[in-house]
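Sample 1 of the test manifest.
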Amino acid sequence: MNYRFCRQALRIVVIATCVAMTMGCTQRQDAGESGGTRTAERATTAAADPLPSWRDDGAQRTIVEFVQRVTDAHGPNFVPVSERIATFDNDGTLWAEQPAYFQLAFVLDRVRTMAPEHPEWKTTPPFQAVIENDRAALASMGMPELMKLIAASHSGMTTEEYAGFATAWIDTATHPRFRHRYTECVYQPMLELLAYLRANGFKTFIVSGGGVDFMRTFSQSTYGIPTEQVIGSSVKTKFEMQDGKSVLVKLPEINSIDDKEGKPVNIGLHIGRRPLLAFGNSDGDLPMLEYASDGSGPRLALILHHDDADREWAYDRDSHVGRLDRGLDEARARGWTVVSMKNDFERVFAFQTTP
Amino acid sequence: MNYRFCRQALRIVVIATCVAMTMGCTQRQDAGESGGTRTAERATTAAADPLPSWRDDGAQRTIVEFVQRVTDAHGPNFVPVSERIATFDNDGTLWAEQPAYFQLAFVLDRVRTMAPEHPEWKTTPPFQAVIENDRAALASMGMPELMKLIAASHSGMTTEEYAGFATAWIDTATHPRFRHRYTECVYQPMLELLAYLRANGFKTFIVSGGGVDFMRTFSQSTYGIPTEQVIGSSVKTKFEMQDGKSVLVKLPEINSIDDKEGKPVNIGLHIGRRPLLAFGNSDGDLPMLEYASDGSGPRLALILHHDDADREWAYDRDSHVGRLDRGLDEARARGWTVVSMKNDFERVFAFQTTP
């Protein structure tokens, strides 16, 4: 376990505490049609204006002008389709990340769901604290305790079993503030941007600190992004035979933390070229934005600034989740596009009927 | 350095020796049009019969019937486009691998090319042996020596610098037996198969023990496979700033050996679903073929059997390179399709004008 991972895990502790303190994580019982599928369709059927949830001026103009420039076959900045790679962070860029990363809620819910099969957890920390929702104990939980929770809830099963659990959760769990499924807490302007880029020959990728197997359960239905274009944090897996059938078993051992420098490293490993466009929202995205920007020819780096407490949240330099500090300075220095949620988003979520 | 990697490296030693003993690795000076691009185009422009270099009966029929079954929207075995994943080994499956893996020739050539910048190599083993083409010394070379060669030739540079070196080599180096560029030593029937699958909604991937950065320099032009659909062995990389520009530097440390169990593990990491079709040629491909076969619904696993010493090579159970031993038994037991190069390929290489 290396230093970077420890640092990451420690940050997660703060977040986990936040989750435990603030989230109800109620499961919606009447899970019917996937909300994510609905919103994805809404994005792709926008006919005349491909970006209706963006306000006309500002960031939208920058994006459209960039796309026109690199797709103009007769212009000096034309980029062939094969090089039109666009990478997006997920937490805080495609969907919300407050009051805590959504996947953390899944970890805690998963432990509670598994509890009946583990009667010993009732008296075993840290499981006991999760089961009893013991806020004091959760608040004082350290890294080793959190690792036990993640190991118990995210490993020791096949990738297909894990996908089943994660899908069942994502289909029913709801966000504590918005009371909508998490896959409905995606930013409508970003769904439109993904569809707009794809319509212009871009291949869209997620490059996120979130767990790759977790995100893959909803990336296609929510974002229209297939599993093979999702890059995320991962545990090691082991190939083995179970009852005569080959499976991949998730191990309680980190393979990659897809955050900070891990993002361009994984872009190199999985994609093998610099993104033409990269979109993030926190300091954890800076290396990815730098890597995209430093390619030859025109490049577009964008940062979503959460400055809209009414419709979503307002946070940046001092936030525990999705801190954006050095990023604001570097965006100014490098001329990156800072997208203001308040000013650039005509609408934030599809479920907010009035903008 | 773990056991599996040591075993792999030891196997490479045998091969490296073989390379040194048998290959001239002359560089063609008049490198003009890419032979690879030509052959890829030839494959995709085949109009009436999409698989003209396959003989009509046998394996071709199995492939066509399978593709018709999974693409028949009204049939019971229909598979949506998003799940039409096809994975191909490279060495011995898409291009030849005799008398030794082509990338090994690059490693030795690279050391010779770099030698003038390293005058100390003239008297430093194992570089001295490579520079002097000292067959006795090369034949006795052990794993630590080979690792020094790979570390010197495949790390300590940015991924973009490496791509430049590899491209320059692949554009000019020629195969010692066929006297054609390596990217022309690809199997014409396999190019046609790749194009046929893509025309039927499949996404084609390379999953090979070869170096991922090496293969990515020719995957698009030779196979029509973009870099992000190439999975291979890799070294770790480091994100850093060089002269104010962000780069990925290749480190002399293994990240992943994409062979045997490493293939399904990397398929899980990079693709996130079981292949619908998998094609290999050696025991190193068995876990990938098993992983594909064990998915639900119809699956197609294929093994290319090198049984054609006249047009290519004949080798299987006892070969140092691309050994196919357990695979022949398992193919029979599981009902996999064994493709006979001699009987199923109407033509092997595009440059062989008479079949």
